[in-house]
TrEMBL record:
The keyword GTP-binding does not apply. Belongs to the CEP43 family. PROSITE patterns: LISH. Involved in the biogenesis of cilia. Required for the recruitment of PLK1 to centrosomes and S phase progression. It is found in: Cytoplasm, Cytoskeleton, Cilium basal body; Cytoplasm, Cytoskeleton, Microtubule organizing center, Centrosome, Centriolar satellite; Cytoplasmic granule. GO terms for biological process: cilium assembly; microtubule anchoring. GO terms for cellular component: centriolar satellite; ciliary basal body; motile cilium. This is Centrosomal protein 20. InterPro entries: FOP_dimerisation-dom_N (IPR018993), LisH (IPR006594). Residues 44-113 form the FGFR1 oncogene partner (FOP) N-terminal dimerisation domain.
Length: 151
C-alpha cells in the first residue's frame, strides 16, 4: 500500500510539474458532463445576443487554450460545433479593428475599449454603435493608492 501511495504521489507531482494535471481534470469534467447531458430534453433556441456572446467567450477560451471549457460551453449552450467566422462577429458587433487587434480575441478589444471609458480610440479595436451598452461606473479608472497598497 505504501509503495502504491508513493507511486501515485510521484505521478501526481510529475503531472503537476508538466502542467497537464489541470488539463486532465478539465477533460474528465467535460467527459462527465457529456455523459450526463440529457439529450432528450430540447434546448431553447439561442437568441442572437446569446449566440454572439457565446462566440466571443468561445474565441477567448480557445485562444487561451481552454479547449475543454470551450467544448463544455459549446455543448451546454447548444452552440454550433463550427465557430462563427470572426469577420461575421466583427460586422455584427460593429467593430473596427486595426492590424494588432486581429491577433487577439475580440473580447480583449472590447474590454480595452470600456476600460478606457469608451471615449478614446483603443489601440486594439474601436467599437462604434455596439449592441453592448454597459454602465460605466468605475470602468477605466485606476485603483486608488489605498487599494494598491493592499495588493
Amino acid at each position: 500500500y505504501v509503495r502504491w501511495f508513493l507511486v501515485v504521489t510521484a505521478l501526481k507531482e510529475a503531472l503537476e510539474k508538466r502542467g497537464v494535471l489541470g488539463q486532465i481534470r478539465a477533460n474528465i469534467r467535460a467527459e462527465v458532463f457529456h455523459a450526463l447531458d440529457d439529450q432528450s430534453e430540447p434546448r431553447p433556441p439561442l437568441s442572437r445576443e446569446n449566440l454572439l456572446i457565446n462566440e466571443l467567450v468561445r474565441e477567448y477560451l480557445e485562444y487561451n487554450k481552454y479547449k475543454y471549457t470551450a467544448s463544455v460551453l459549446t455543448a451546454e449552450a447548444g452552440q454550433p460545433e463550427v465557430p462563427l467566422d470572426r469577420q461575421f462577429l466583427v460586422k455584427e458587433l460593429n467593430i473596427v479593428e486595426d492590424a494588432n487587434a486581429k491577433s487577439v480575441p475580440l473580447l480583449y478589444g472590447i474590454i480595452s475599449h470600456f476600460l478606457r471609458g469608451g471615449k478614446e480610440e483603443s489601440t486594439q479595436s474601436i467599437l462604434k454603435g455596439s449592441l453592448l451598452s454597459y454602465p460605466r461606473q468605475n470602468l477605466g479608472k485606476p485603483p486608488t493608492e489605498q487599494n494598491q497598497k493592499g495588493r
